[in-house]
C-alpha cells in the first residue's frame, strides 16, 4: 500500500457514488426505515495529488444527509441538476431527492417516479445521463426498461416487450445507445431512437449454471468512442468476460478470478474499470477483499488470473469473532488518482486505499 | 408553565468558546467560562454584561461549573471571577482543579510576556480565582444550596473532563462539555446513567465528522517517526505533561520493541515528575489498561524510553525526544527546537492546537523564518508535521449519549445552524424529542412538566375503592378527593378529613328543580303516576313512595304540588344534594320528557 485510511460509517452502505465537487455519496440499506443518505466531503488528503501523511484534516465530513424510508440499493446523481435518484425494495419505483448543500444540510425527498407494479418485481437498476434533458434509465426487468425525463417525468423510451429476465445492470453508452445486462449474463444493446426493439443480444459464456452476472462499463471515458471500450461481465462463480461491442460474436478475453467458491450470494457483486489506468479493473463482492486485475495480459482461455493487488483490509476490521466476516458491498475508483480506490463492507467500514504497482511494471 | 432557559454566551463559531447560562427553577448556573483563542481583544471573552446589567454577578449566579481544563472552556475564568467580579462557588473535578492553574499561567505568560498585552489577568488573579474552586468527585451529589444539586459524570476526552447534571427538585439539565464515546489508550469512554434529564446540552462541533480510524493515525505517526530516525534525523515531540504523552510513549515503546529499533527515545524530566504526580493523584480517571500497568510498574519505566538531559540534544545520530511545553513557546521544547530546526533531516510533530503567537502556531501555519529574541532569525528547515489525537463525539457518539441518558429535550451548541439541520432531524426522528440549536446570545426556553408527588390518605383510598365497580387494571378509575397544600406537602384527603384539619364547617348544598307537568288531577294522584312511572323505568334504583305522598329515588326527593295559578298543571319539585348531582340531573330530564298517559 502507499496509503490506507479506514473509516467507520454509522450504517453500512452498498453503494459509493461520486458527485460534483469530489463529493462521495453513501446510503444505508437496512430493512427498517430510517436509512440515511449521506453526501460526504472527503478529507483534503484524498483530493490532492500528493499524499500527505500527517495532516490536520483527515476525516470525511458529512455535507448533507437525507432520510429514506426504504433501503437504498442504488443511487445515481442526475447530471446538470441538483437531484439524485434512488431505488430499492420493495418495488421498482424510484425516489427522487433534492440536494441543496448551500441552503441546508438536508437532502429533501421530492415526489417519486412510479412504475407499474408487478408482483415479484425486484428493485430497479438505474443509470443517468444528461442528453437532450436529464434522463434516468431504469428498470428491474428486461421488458420493463424505460427512460424517464427527470424534471418533466415524461416517459421518453420504453423497452422492447418480451424477455422477462431480471436485470442486473444497465448503462448509457452514449445518449442514444443503451447497454442492458441480465442477471443470466446476457447483454443487450438498444437504441433510444428505436424503442420496442433490441439491437442485439450477446451470448453468455460458459455452461449455464445458476450464476448471476453483473456489468462493468468504463465511465468517465468521455470523448472516446464508447463502443470501443470493452465491457466486463462478472459472474458469481468468479468468471470474468470482456467483450468488445464492435465485435460481439467473440469474447475479447475470458478469465477466472481467484475467489472462494461457491460464491456466497451474488448480492454485492461489483466489477469496475479504472478510469485512469489502461486495462485495469477491480472486482469485489465475494468476501472481504477487493481484487485488482490487469486485463491486458488476458486471453480467451478462461484460465485463472492472478490479481495484481488484493485489498484485505475489510476482513480484518470490526469486532473479532462476532458473526459473519464482513463482505465487501461496494467499491469505486477515484476519478483522478490512478491507483486509489474506495471500498465499503457490510460492517459499516469504509476504506480508502492507494496501492503500489508491483515491481516490473511502470 | 415551568421552564428552563438556556443562553449560550460564547460568540463566533470557529474554535468555540464555551460559556452557557442556564436558568432552572429560579437558579442560575454558568456552564464553562472559555476563552476564544483567535481574538486578541475583548472579543475573546464571553459577553458577561448579558447576564445582568448592573447587578452583582455573585448575587445572580448560584454557581459556575467548569467541565475540563481546555482553555476554550476555562480560559476566561480568572478574568470573570477577578476582573468582572464573582465570588460564588466554582465547581470542577479534582484533576481539572489541579491542571487548570498551570494552563492558565502558561497562557498568561504567552499573552503578557510574549505578546505584550496589558489588559489581562495576573498570576495573583489566577491564584485568587482557584481559591473559589470547590473540587468534586465523580458521581458525588453536591448540594450547592438547599435546592440546587450537581453531579459529575465521566466524560473521557481529557484527564478530568466531566459531564455535569444540574438538578433542582425534579427538573434537571445535563451539560456534556466535550466528551468522547470511544475509549482510547489512556482514557475511557464517557458514561452516564438513565437519568432522564429535562434537557441535555451537547457540543456538536464534530457531529458532521466521520473520523479516520485511530490505527491509521497511529500508523502514519509511527511511519513518520521511523522514516526520520532511519535517515539519521531527530524527532521532537512537544507535549503537555499529561495524557497524550503517555499514549504516544506507549505507542513508541511497543513499536520500538517490535521493530527492534535502537535509536534512543527520551522524555524531559519535568515531564516525568509532573506526570507521575498527577497520575498518582488521579489514577481512577484513566482507563483500566493504564491503571494495571501503573500498578505493575511505574508509568515511566519504559525499556526504551529514558530521561533526557540537556546535553543529549547535541548528540549526533537519530533520537526521539518528548519535551514540554506543548506549543513550543518557551522552556525545554523551544530550546531543543532551536538546536534542531536548521537540519532538514529532523522533524517536529505538533500534537495539537497551538495558540496564536506561539512558535508552534507559527510553524504550523507555514512560517519558516522565525524571529527569536535578540532579533535573531531562525530558519526552519526541519519537517513540520501535525498530529491530532484529541477525541470528540461524532454524530454516532451523540446519538449514543442521548440513548444512555434519555433526555426529554436536546440542545446542540457550537455548530452552524445550516449544518445542523440533518442531525436535528436525526435526533428528533429516532428519539421523538425536541432538538434546539440556539445561536449565541439567543435564549431558548424549554417547557418542562415537573411531576409533583401527592400522598393519598389511606382512608380516602379505602373509601373510594369501596364505591362503584371494582378496580380494574385496564380502566382508569375516577376518584374524588380534596388536595391539601400545607407546609410544602401535598396530600389528597377525603373532604370531611380536610375540613376537619382546616377547621372548617361542612355545608350541605341542596338543589331543587321545578318540573311542570300537565295533569288536572289531584297532587297525590300525580304523585302516584310519577311513582309508577319511575318504578317502571328505574329498575336498578330504589324508588319508594312515602306515606306523605312524596317519592324518593335513592336519596332524591320528589314532591308533587299544585301550581298556584293553573289548576291543570302540577309542579314537581325535585330535590337532591350536591353529591347526587348526576342522578338528580338525570331524573329531572327524565321527568321533563313527560309522564306516560296511563297511570
UniProtKB/TrEMBL annotation, chain A:
Transmembrane domains' residue ranges: none
GO process terms (BP): cytoplasmic microtubule organization
Coiled coil: none
Source superkingdom: Eukaryota
InterPro entries named among the record's database cross-references: WD40/YVTN_repeat-like_dom_sf (IPR015943), WD40_repeat_dom_sf (IPR036322), WD40_rpt (IPR001680), Wdr73 (IPR042795)
Any one cellular-component term (Gene Ontology): cytosol
Protein name per the record: WDR73 protein
Gene name in the database record: Wdr73
TrEMBL record, chain B:
Cellular compartment(s): Cytoplasm; Nucleus
InterPro entries cross-referenced by the UniProt entry: Beta_Casp, INTS11-like_MBL-fold, IntS11_C, MBL, Metallo-B-lactamas, RibonucZ/Hydroxyglut_hydro, RMMBL
Signal peptide: none
Annotated ranges, domain Metallo-beta-lactamase: 16-233
Domain of life per record: Eukaryota
Molecular function via GO: hydrolase activity; metal ion binding; RNA endonuclease activity
Domain Beta-Casp intervals: 245-363
Assigned keywords, A-Z: Cytoplasm, Hydrolase, Metal-binding, Nucleus, Zinc
Cofactor requirement: Zn(2+)
BP-aspect Gene Ontology terms: snRNA processing
Record GO cellular component, one term: cytoplasm
Family statement: Belongs to the metallo-beta-lactamase superfamily. RNA-metabolizing metallo-beta-lactamase-like family. INTS11 subfamily.
Protein name, as recorded: Integrator complex subunit 11
Origin species: Daphoenositta chrysoptera
Annotated gene: Ints11
Amino acid at each position: 500500500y502507499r496509503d490506507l485510511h479506514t473509516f467507520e460509517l454509522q450504517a453500512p452502505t452498498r453503494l459509493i457514488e461520486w458527485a460534483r465537487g469530489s463529493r462521495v455519496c453513501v446510503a444505508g440499506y437496512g430493512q427498517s426505515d430510517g436509512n440515511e443518505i449521506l453526501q460526504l466531503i472527503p478529507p483534503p488528503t484524498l483530493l490532492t495529488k500528493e499524499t500527505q501523511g500527517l495532516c490536520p484534516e483527515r476525516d470525511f465530513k458529512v455535507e448533507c444527509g437525507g432520510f429514506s424510508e426504504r433501503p437504498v440499493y442504488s443511487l445515481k446523481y442526475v447530471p446538470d441538476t441538483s437531484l439524485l435518484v434512488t431505488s430499492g425494495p420493495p418495488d421498482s419505483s424510484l425516489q427522487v431527492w433534492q440536494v441543496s448543500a448551500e441552503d441546508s444540510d438536508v437532502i429533501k425527498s421530492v415526489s417519486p417516479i412510479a412504475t407499474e407494479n408487478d408482483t415479484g418485481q425486484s428493485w430497479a437498476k438505474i443509470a443517468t445521463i444528461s442528453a437532450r434533458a436529464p434522463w434516468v434509465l431504469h428498470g428491474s426487468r428486461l421488458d420493463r426498461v424505460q427512460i424517464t425525463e427527470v424534471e418533466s417525468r415524461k416517459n421518453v423510451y420504453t423497452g422492447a416487450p418480451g424477455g422477462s429476465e431480471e436485470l442486473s445492470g444497465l448503462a448509457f453508452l452514449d445518449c442514444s445507445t443503451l447497454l442492458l445486462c441480465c442477471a443470466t449474463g446476457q447483454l443487450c444493446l438498444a437504441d433510444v431512437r428505436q424503442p420496442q426493439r433490441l439491437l442485439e443480444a450477446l451470448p453468455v459464456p460458459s455452461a449455464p449454471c445458476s450464476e448471476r452476472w453483473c456489468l462493468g462499463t468504463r465511465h468517465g471515458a468521455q470523448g472516446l468512442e464508447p463502443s470501443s471500450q470493452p465491457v466486463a461481465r462478472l459472474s458469481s462463480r468468479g468468471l470474468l468476460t470482456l467483450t468488445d461491442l464492435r465485435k460481439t460474436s467473440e469474447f475479447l478475453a475470458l478469465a477466472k478470478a481467484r475467489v472462494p467458491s461457491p460464491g456466497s450470494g451474488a448480492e454485492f457483486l461489483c466489477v469496475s474499470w479504472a478510469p485512469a489506468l489502461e486495462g485495469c479493473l477491480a472486482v469485489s463482492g465475494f468476501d472481504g477483499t477487493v481484487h485488482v486485475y490487469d486485463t491486458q495480459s488476458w486471453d480467451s482461455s478462461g484460465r485463472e488470473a492472478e490479481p495484481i493487488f488484493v485489498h484485505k483490509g475489510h476482513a480484518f476490521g470490526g469486532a473479532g469473532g462476532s458473526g459473519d466476516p464482513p463482505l465487501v458491498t461496494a467499491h469505486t475508483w477515484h476519478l483522478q488518482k490512478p491507483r486509489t480506490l474506495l471500498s465499503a463492507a457490510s460492517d459499516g467500514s469504509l476504506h480508502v486505499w492507494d496501492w503500489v504497482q508491483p515491481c516490473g511494471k511502470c | 408553565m415551568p421552564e428552563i432557559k438556556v443562553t449560550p454566551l460564547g460568540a463566533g463559531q470557529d474554535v468555540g468558546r464555551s460559556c452557557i447560562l442556564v436558568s432552572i427553577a429560579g437558579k442560575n448556573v454558568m456552564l464553562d467560562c472559555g476563552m476564544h483563542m483567535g481574538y486578541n481583544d475583548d472579543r475573546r471573552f464571553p459577553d458577561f454584561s448579558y447576564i445582568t446589567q448592573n447587578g452583582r454577578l455573585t448575587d445572580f449566579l448560584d454557581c459556575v461549573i467548569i467541565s475540563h481544563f481546555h482553555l476554550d472552556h476555562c480560559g476566561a475564568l480568572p478574568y470573570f471571577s477577578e476582573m468582572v467580579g464573582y465570588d460564588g462557588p466554582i465547581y470542577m473535578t479534582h484533576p481539572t482543579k489541579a491542571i487548570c492553574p498551570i494552563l492558565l499561567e502558561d497562557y498568561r505568560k504567552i499573552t503578557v510576556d510574549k505578546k505584550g498585552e496589558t489588559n489581562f489577568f495576573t498570576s495573583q488573579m489566577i491564584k485568587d480565582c482557584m481559591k473559589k474552586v470547590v473540587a468534586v468527585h465523580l458521581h458525588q451529589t453536591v448540594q450547592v444550596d438547599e435546592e440546587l444539586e450537581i453531579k459529575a459524570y465521566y466524560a473521557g476526552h481529557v484527564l478530568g473532563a466531566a459531564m455535569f447534571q444540574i438538578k433542582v427538585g425534579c427538573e434537571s439539565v445535563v451539560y456534556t462539555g466535550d466528551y468522547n464515546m470511544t475509549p482510547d489508550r489512556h482514557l475511557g469512554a464517557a458514561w452516564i446513567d438513565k437519568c432522564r434529564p429535562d434537557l441535555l446540552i451537547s457540543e456538536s462541533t464534530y457531529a458532521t465528522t466521520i473520523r479516520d480510524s485511530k490505527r491509521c493515525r497511529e500508523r502514519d505517526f509511527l511511519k513518520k517517526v521511523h522514516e526520520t530516525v532511519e535517515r539519521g534525523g531527530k524527532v521532537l515531540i512537544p507535549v503537555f505533561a499529561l495524557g497524550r504523552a503517555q499514549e504516544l510513549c506507549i505507542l513508541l515503546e511497543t513499536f520500538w520493541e517490535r521493530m527492534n529499533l535502537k535509536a534512543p527515545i527520551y522524555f524531559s524530566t519535568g515531564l516525568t515528575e509532573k506526570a507521575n504526580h498527577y497520575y498518582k493523584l488521579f489514577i481512577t480517571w484513566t482507563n483500566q489498561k493504564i491503571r494495571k500497568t501503573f500498578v505493575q510498574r511505574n508509568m515511566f519505566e519504559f525499556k526504551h524510553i529514558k530521561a533526557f538531559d540537556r546535553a543529549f540534544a547535541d548528540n549526533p545520530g537519530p533520537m526521539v525526544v518528548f519535551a514540554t511545553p506543548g506549543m513550543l513557546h518557551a522552556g525545554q521544547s523551544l530550546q531543543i527546537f532551536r538546536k534542531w530546526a536548521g537540519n532538514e533531516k529532523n522533524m517536529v510533530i505538533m500534537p495539537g492546537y497551538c495558540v496564536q503567537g506561539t512558535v508552534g502556531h507559527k510553524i504550523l501555519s507555514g512560517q519558516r523564518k522565525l524571529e527569536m529574541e535578540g532579533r535573531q532569525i531562525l530558519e526552519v528547515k526541519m519537517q513540520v508535521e501535525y498530529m491530532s489525537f484529541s477525541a470528540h463525539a461524532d454524530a454516532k457518539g451523540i446519538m449514543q449519549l442521548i440513548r444512555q441518558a434519555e433526555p426529554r429535550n436536546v440542545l446542540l451548541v457550537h455548530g452552524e445552524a445550516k449544518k445542523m439541520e440533518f442531525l436535528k432531524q436525526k435526533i428528533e426522528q429516532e428519539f421523538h424529542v425536541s432538538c434546539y440549536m440556539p445561536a449565541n446570545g439567543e435564549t431558548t426556553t424549554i417547557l418542562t412538566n415537573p411531576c409533583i408527588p401527592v400522598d393519598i390518605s389511606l382512608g380516602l383510598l379505602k373509601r373510594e375503592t369501596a364505591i362503584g365497580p371494582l378496580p380494574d387494571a385496564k380502566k382508569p378509575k375516577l376518584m374524588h378527593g380534596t388536595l391539601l397544600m400545607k407546609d410544602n406537602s401535598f396530600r389528597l384527603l377525603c373532604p370531611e378529613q380536610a375540613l376537619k384539619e382546616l377547621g372548617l364547617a361542612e355545608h350541605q348544598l341542596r338543589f331543587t328543580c321545578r318540573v311542570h307537568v300537565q295533569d288536572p288531577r289531584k297532587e297525590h294522584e300525580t304523585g302516584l303516576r310519577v311513582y309508577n312511572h319511575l318504578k317502571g323505568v328505574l329498575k336498578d334504583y330504589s324508588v319508594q313512595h312515602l306515606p306523605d305522598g312524596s317519592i324518593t329515588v335513592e336519596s332524591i326527593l320528589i314532591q308533587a304540588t299544585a301550581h298556584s295559578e293553573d289548576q291543570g298543571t302540577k309542579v314537581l319539585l325535585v330535590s337532591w344534594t350536591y353529591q347526587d348531582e348526576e342522578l338528580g340531573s338525570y331524573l329531572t330530564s327524565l321527568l321533563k320528557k313527560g309522564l306516560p298517559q296511563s297511570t
